[in-house]
Q: What sequence folds into this?
């Protein structure tokens, strides 16, 4: 009796020891792995490579816009443009109200920061708490009265002077002088400056007199907004449509292809071992090749566009669906099939009334789940194959200046995914009833 | 009396039959309509996609095999170099796997907290449950590529942007799956621990984790599988690893197809290997559950 007890105690001690070992061992292994990653991913070097200026630009540009006042030092022309783009240029004879003067152009950046464009390519910059800066452009060189030791918000060389103030930026080169004035908000989101509806209040557009005699206000405003050259609402809507289309065609096409193949792969319904094994290897193969490689391969055959993306999703998901469907088919209840066949049903009818009703809820749930998940994949695949909102996002990021557009696309993508998530959940509830 | 019952019975059978047939007809009509709408959507969707694609479907169909054939034949001609190339790209493969592993690890940890804090009965601050759920919804909805591209701009190329991007998405996705599991956890051990005066983290670690660990690990393994694919794809947009090498190899075009071939083989082998490995362990973890 005592021997038994001490044996049990020993066993229990051993068990505890093992548990303790595991309890300390697993976190220790993870910690060692993370240390290895710390050096393998060169995290110490990351601080040098990271560009914090980029982060600041990204953060401030995503919710603000700037208006450029540019003087061409050769011709003496002055242009006013939102974000310096031709699409955002002020029409001839118009300019922002913080610019005044005819021979001497005075730009009031706010908080007493004033820039004056004088004749003969001279520029005066008046910044509170700093002496008046005078710059003269001579050919490709700049002559200025800047002192030797400069504060860190001014960078100056013979060719280029840059001044960054909280109110705006000033850049001067021999060829041109530019002032950037920053404002919060997304500029010209509704109408570009050349639209007659720019600057009209919502009330005027909805209830007021016609702004343009030929068109009704609402139709005109809608069409000007839809064709806004700066934000390209029409293209964005098409791109989102393309992305959802890729996900829809890919998911549904894969489900249609995978269902008959799943019957071939399920032990219950496929008597030939070879055929079964072949179908399963096919599923494994198309799944293993992965959407990335399929996209690359298909883009060679079909060119860039939504169809390529849809086909890449279709092929990959045929493998995934095939696997899931065949597992569902193997788990069907024999009794229902027996019941149906006892009424004299032929094989096809047995499948239709004995098998399909059992597996449909499982299949539908999976298909709808993949529809949502594929909307996300379609965004990524679109960035590679060149279609949909993914492409617009990568392009906007690669140009590295329209961060407000990047922010807009990101918001749209997140909303799109959440709507698809909600929609697939709603449809699942309608079609197969809620869980619980 | 007898007359009535004799004449009554067929009538009621008739009426039952006719109402049954009417129901069947209505169901067939609805089913047919749904099918019709679905077919119309598919066909018109296909046509729209075909129109907006650079190359047409029917023109491209017979060219599908061309590129893989070119790559494979060239790789086969230079098969002597293949082991060398595979060795050359092996470090990139390791990087891809590392990105997936670390992001799964970090994401699983984040998902763990999100799920425990977002589950009724377990949450530390019950009023904050909706907040944590929304956080995990948003983290789940942001595609990896969005965060990766932004971080590449700030941090420069390399594995770290991809790692962070995948980890964020993983935390959201696992947060949801985990909380579905922990909703079904038995609360009695938690109450028992609470009665001994243990704090929240002790209750979670000792009362909840032992119950849910097998399912959690099984979901995390599934996620690891998915993340390997994601990390390869993100490499393609500049985040290091095998995808990055693949893009470079593809940009060289013919003559260097052997390199693309070697990368294809590595990627395919890795995905299949980890798929099999994780499904093996997942089956072992969830054995004897649910049935």
A:
């Amino acid at each position: 009796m005592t021997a038994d007890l001490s044996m049990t105690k020993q066993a229990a001690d051993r068990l505890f020891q093992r548990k303790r070992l595991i309890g300390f061992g697993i976190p220790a292994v993870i910690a060692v792995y993370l240390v290895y990653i710390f050096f393998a991913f060169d995290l110490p070097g990351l601080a040098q490579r990271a560009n914090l200026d980029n982060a600041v630009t990204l953060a401030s540009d995503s919710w603000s816009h700037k208006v450029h006042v540019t003087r061409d030092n050769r011709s003496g022309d002055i242009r006013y443009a939102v974000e310096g783009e031709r699409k955002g240029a002020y029409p001839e004879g118009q300019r922002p109200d913080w610019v005044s003067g005819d021979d001497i152009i005075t730009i009031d950046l706010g908080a007493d920061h004033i820039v004056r464009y004088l004749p003969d390519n001279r520029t005066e910059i008046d910044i509170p708490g700093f002496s008046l800066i005078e710059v003269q452009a001579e050919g490709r060189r700049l002559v200025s009265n800047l002192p030797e030791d400069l504060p860190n918000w001014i960078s100056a060389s013979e060719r280029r002077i840059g001044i960054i103030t909280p109110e705006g930026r000033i850049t001067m080169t021999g060829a041109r002088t530019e002032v950037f004035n920053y404002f919060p908000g997304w500029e010209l989101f509704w109408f570009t400056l050349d639209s007659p509806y720019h600057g009209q209040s919502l009330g005027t557009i909805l209830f007021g007199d016609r702004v343009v005699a030929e068109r009704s206000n609402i139709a005109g405003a809608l069409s000007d907004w839809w064709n806004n050259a700066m934000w390209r609402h029409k293209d964005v809507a098409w791109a989102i449509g393309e992305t959802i289309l890729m996900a829809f065609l890919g998911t549904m096409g894969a489900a249609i292809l995978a269902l008959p193949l799943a019957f071939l792969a399920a032990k219950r319904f496929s008597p030939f071992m070879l055929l079964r094994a072949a179908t399963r290897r096919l599923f494994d193969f198309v799944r293993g090749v992965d959407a990335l490689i399929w996209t690359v391969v298909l883009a060679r055959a079909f060119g860039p566009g939504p169809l390529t993306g849809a086909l890449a999703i279709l092929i990959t998901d045929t493998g995934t669906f095939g696997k899931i469907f065949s597992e569902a088919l193997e788990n069907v209840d024999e009794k229902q099939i027996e019941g149906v066949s006892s009424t004299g049903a032929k094989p096809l009818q047995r499948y239709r009334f004995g098998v399909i009703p059992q597996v449909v809820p499982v299949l539908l749930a999976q298909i709808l789940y993949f529809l949502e998940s594929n909307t996300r994949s379609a965004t990524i695949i679109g960035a590679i194959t060149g279609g949909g909102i993914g492409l617009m996002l990568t392009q906007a990021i690669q140009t590295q200046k329209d961060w407000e557009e990047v922010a807009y696309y990101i918001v749209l993508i997140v909303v799109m995914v959440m709507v698809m998530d909600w929609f697939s959940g709603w449809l699942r509830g309608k079609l197969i009833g809620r869980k619980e | 009396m007898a007359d009535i019952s004799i004449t009554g019975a067929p009538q009621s059978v008739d009426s039952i039959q006719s109402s049954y047939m009417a129901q069947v007809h209505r169901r067939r009509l609805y089913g047919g309509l749904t099918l019709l709408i679905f077919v119309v959507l598919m066909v018109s969707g296909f046509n729209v996609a075909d129109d907006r694609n650079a190359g047409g479907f029917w023109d491209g169909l017979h060219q599908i095999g061309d590129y893989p054939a070119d790559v494979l034949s060239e790789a086969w001609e230079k098969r002597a170099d293949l082991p060398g190339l595979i060795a050359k790209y092996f470090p990139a493969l390791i990087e891809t796997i590392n990105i997936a592993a670390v992001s799964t690890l970090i994401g699983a940890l984040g998902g763990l907290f999100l799920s425990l804090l977002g589950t009724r009965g377990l949450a530390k601050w019950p009023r904050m449950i909706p907040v944590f759920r929304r956080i995990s919804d948003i983290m789940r909805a942001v595609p990896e590529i969005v965060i990766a591209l932004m971080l590449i701009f700030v941090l420069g190329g390399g594995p770290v942007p991809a790692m962070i991007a995948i980890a964020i998405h993983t935390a959201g996705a696992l947060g949801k799956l985990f909380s579905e599991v922990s909703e079904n956890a038995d609360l009695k051990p938690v109450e028992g621990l609470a009665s001994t005066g243990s704090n929240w983290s002790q209750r979670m670690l000792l009362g909840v984790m032992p119950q849910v660990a097998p399912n959690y690990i099984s979901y995390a393994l599934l996620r690891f599988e998915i993340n390997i694919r994601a990390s390869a794809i993100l490499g393609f947009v500049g985040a290091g690893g095998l995808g990055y090498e693949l893009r470079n190899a593809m940009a060289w075009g013919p003559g260097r197809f052997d390199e693309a071939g070697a990368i294809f083989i590595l990627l395919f082998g890795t995905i299949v290997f980890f798929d099999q490995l994780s499904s093996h362990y997942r089956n072992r973890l969830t054995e004897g559950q649910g049935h």
Summary: Chain B touches chain A through 59 residues (CB under 8 Å). DSSP finds eleven helices and no strands in chain B. Confidence is low (pLDDT under 50) at residues 1-5 of chain B.
